[in-house]
What we know:
The complex is a heterodimer of chains A (150) and B (464). Chain A is of the alpha/beta class. Chain A has helices at 21-32, 46-56, 70-74, 77-83, 104-113, 126-139; strands spanning 8-13, 36-39, 60-65, 90-95, 118-120. In chain A, 40% of the residues are buried. Chain B is α/β, with parallel strands linked by helices and 464 residues long. In chain B, 35% of the residues lie in helices and 23% in strands. Chain B contains 15 helices and 19 strands. The relative contact order of chain B is 0.12. Classes of the chains: A alpha/beta (150), B alpha/beta (464). At the A-B interface, helix 2 of A face strand 15 of B.
Amino acid sequence: MEKEKKKRVILGVIGADVHAVGNTILNRALQDAGFEVTNLGVMVPQEEMIRAAVEDGADAILVSSLYGQGELDCTGMREKCEEAGLKDILLYAGGNLVVGKVPEKEIQERYKALGFDRAFGPGTDPSVTIAALKKDLAKGRVHHHKGSEE
Amino acid sequence: MKAVLLIDFGSTYTKITAVDIEKEEILGTAQSFTTIETDINDGLKNALKILEEKTGPLEFSEKYACSSAAGGLRMVAIGLVPELTAQAAKQASLGAGAKVIKTYSYELTDGDVDEIDEINPDILLLTGGTDGGNKENIVHNAHQLAKLKSRSFPIIIAGNRSCTDEVSEILEDFETFKCENVMPKLNIPNVEPVQELIRNIFLKKIVLAKGLSKAQELIKGILMPTPAAMLEAMKLLAKGTETEKGIGDLVGVDLGGATTDVYSMSYGLPQTGAAVLKGLREDYAKRTVEGDIGMRYSIKGIVAASDIMRISDLAGLSEKKCEEMIDYLSVHTDKVPGEDEPDFIALDYALASMAVEAAVTRHAGKLEPFYTPTGISYMQTGKDLTGVKTVVATGGALIHTTRTAEILKHTLSKPEDAFSLKPKEAGFLVDRKYILAAMGLLSTEYPDAALRIMKKELEKNGVS
């Protein structure tokens, strides 16, 4: 038996986006870093990513978006994960996530508001994402309560 | 002459086909009522008597049989996500010739467990999770299944391999069979190992349990469920053998009284560059069963799946008249229109057309348009059958009519079905003598002969 189980990651380019290159590089980098990756490729709806994560028992979903519609495409994804019983899954987004020149910090805030754990701007080196992923997976997801107080 | 007898123990009729294996010819066919209540051999003997009246006395060197008697091979399939392992489990069972009574996904409830007890299947297929993926669901479901009252049916465990042993321990009171995962990697189904196992269990247990074993004295054995024989025949016809070429990709339709089976022998990959393939990959040899579409028991399902207006239009009868006749037929399920009943003949034509249209539409893949900043793009789910050039027809309602080709035109896509991936232009092959299941059986020992007989016997309608 392996000492430590490989962490499992779902990868895909969300929405109507067909930019395959970054996703392919990330796939390779994650595999080299010891992750078990299921790459769903381009034009992946939220639902397909979530179904894959359920069946695969995934630890994280890494969403790519290059064409500017990322915020629209990612809205409601965290809620659907909750609905599907994936309460501990990490959600990352990366790419050209918003339209226009927006400071990285604000992008992160906008995606945190959507329920994503982290967001990465264009040109992020895969090693940065992988380091963050390892750190987050080691400590487990912090649950933020979105919306109304309980 | 070397004569081989092929037997299909159906739910109503025992159908036999005699073949001269040296000349590769059909010697004759006959049928008689299936006698499962008394001794299944009685019906077979009756059919043989009818056959020999036509052919003269025959000496058979080999006898093979398939069966859908006593309810067929009844299965329950359980998976995790409806579109993924649950679908893969259902697809694997159908491809093995089973009748899937119900498919369950996610966590089984106590109510589901009671329902499975009531269904009392011949085999239960338990799946869930990719290899190394989700464990909790299949383990939960195993604990739920342990609450079943019945211990009479075997359980196949074909889920996440990381917990196969654990699941088998939870179900230790049952007869369990461990198997490779039905979907080891996401979207990539692995149906053969499960199907092989289903077939073995069918041979060893189900035939015995259903009182079909009495036939064993007469024949070498009941090799497979009838739909599996049908699938073998279609596969052979499409793919061919090492020495004899097949006819290429095809779609098969078997229109019955209660259900409609659709087969496709094709990889169904996107035919246009603009489509991205999504979801669970489908097997080259795919079978679907539409339980709500059939010419008598499921006649109301045809109306629901199409439109009474279209039925009325095709039949050339008023909607009111059609509705009255459909009500009559749904009760008088053994009604076969006589030559002096043109209204019934016209209605059956319309119903058969709508039935095959709905069943093939559900079987075929779909395109979904996607508007991207760089223009329109498509997502394809299921098989692209637009390039398939042959539709094979079998089943009473399609072979006992003179309008088979007119009915089969409704399996093809029309200009308005822009997003349905049904065949566009195809010729038709009609199984007029009802020999396909028999040829599927024959193919287990004599594939070349079975293929050549099919090529010879299937009636061409617009196929060159």
